[in-house]
Amino acid sequence: MSIRSDSAPPASVDGATLMSVRDLSVVYRVGNRLVRALSNVSFDVMPGRALALIGESGSGKSTLGSALTRLLPRTAEITSGSITFNGKEGRVQLLDLSSEELRRFRWRDCAVVSQMAMNAFNPVMTIQDHFEDTAAAHGLRDKAKIHDKAYELMETVHLDAKRVLPSYPHQLSGGMRQRVLIALSLLLSPELVILDEPTTALDALSQRAIIKLLRRLRQQLGLTMIFISHDLSLAAELADDVATMYAGQIVEYTDVFSLFDKPKHPYSVGLIGAIPDLSADGASLVSIPGSPPDLVSLPSGCRFHPRCPLSDDKCERELPLLVETEPGQKVACFHWKDAQTLKGSDAFEGRNS
Ligand SMILES: Nc1ncnc2c1ncn2[C@@H]1O[C@H](COP(=O)(O)OP(=O)(O)OP(=O)(O)O)[C@@H](O)[C@H]1O
Ligand SMILES: [Mg+2]
């Protein structure tokens, strides 16, 4: 895995943020049980930067991505927090918007490419119809202009416009649909694009093309992006900053180089140690033992303590807060200084069964 060398310069912590999330909590109600999918999440997204949300399945990445544009299902409830968007139209408090204001906010200011590309399409509409429909919903009705823009965006995502625009969604592969969604998300030139598992549905070559494309789009359009991914190599290639999520919380937030060079949270150390290295024989690959906690009944103290090689009594009792260790770097661990001495491959070895 390689980390590119052209990431944006380090974030100015005092500079204007594009999006500020404070103390955001989300629960899902399942029968009479509460699934605590997000707990007191706070972070900033700086303009022009790319933030990756990483973490195991169920850590709350998609819930966070959906909450940021209030696209959560009906069973979900935002129980605390604020989301401020500081875009070209001025400052907006997302939790105060009416449904009409939210509809305008999505696509124009902030577009989401969902994890479920299939579900986002209407099966009885062609891809061209989707472009026209989205444009019409935002007051753009010049069909020739929309067609030209759709054509251009198809080329940008390496799809054959002549073939794809008149097609119905079921006539395209999952990978092609994902690329159409990326193109569609750019139709109204949003300032922020949230991409949930943008390359998961694609074969390796298409993945490379999409990564290259997204990097080019960022440079050309000055887009700010949030990527959600299981795949740390995607974070390494695309992100400037990385937020590591565990059991509904951000446990580390740092620039991508610091994360891979000196991860400060034992969980980040474990995630990096679990990346397959094609050049190695696999012997050094160590998974994190155990599994994430049940979000209905969370452990006391640090949520990672039952799996952590550094945990002690304090970790069992007290929840560590996300604190700044140096400008632009935050970690929620009492033992982050010791975590830096852990090596991904042997940190969890004694705990692997
Ligand atoms: N509609 C829902 N109803 C109830 N619980 C849900 C719902 N959607 C998600 N959850 C639960 O919320 C938690 C967070 O889920 P989420 O989908 O945000 O995780 P994720 O990090 O995106 O996982 P993945 O990597 O598998 O996509 C999980 O425990 C999940 O089971
Ligand atoms: Mg998800």
Task: Describe the protein's architecture and organization.
The protein is of the alpha/beta class. It has two domains: about 20-240, Rossmann fold (3-Layer(aba) Sandwich); about 245-350, no CATH class. The protein has 13 helices and twelve strands. The strands form two sheets. It has an eight-stranded mixed β-sheet, with helices on both faces. Strands 2-1-4-5 form a four-stranded antiparallel β-sheet, with helices on one face. The longest helix has 18 residues, at about 205-220. Mean pLDDT is about 85; it is low at about 10-15. The protein binds adenosine-5'-triphosphate (ATP) and magnesium ion.
Show the helix and strand layout.
Blueprint (H helix, E strand, L loop, with lengths): L18 E12 L2 E13 L4 E5 L6 H8 L7 E12 L2 E4 L5 H10 L1 E4 L13 H11 L5 H14 L4 H4 L9 H12 L6 E5 L7 H18 L2 E6 L2 H7 L2 E6 L2 E7 H6 L4 H8 L39 H5 L5 E4 L2 E3 L4 H4 L4 H4 L6
Parallel strand pairs: 3-8, 3-9, 6-7, 7-8
Antiparallel strand pairs: 1-2, 1-4, 4-5, 9-10, 10-12, 11-12
Helix pairs in contact: 3-4, 4-6
Bound molecules: adenosine-5'-triphosphate and magnesium ion.
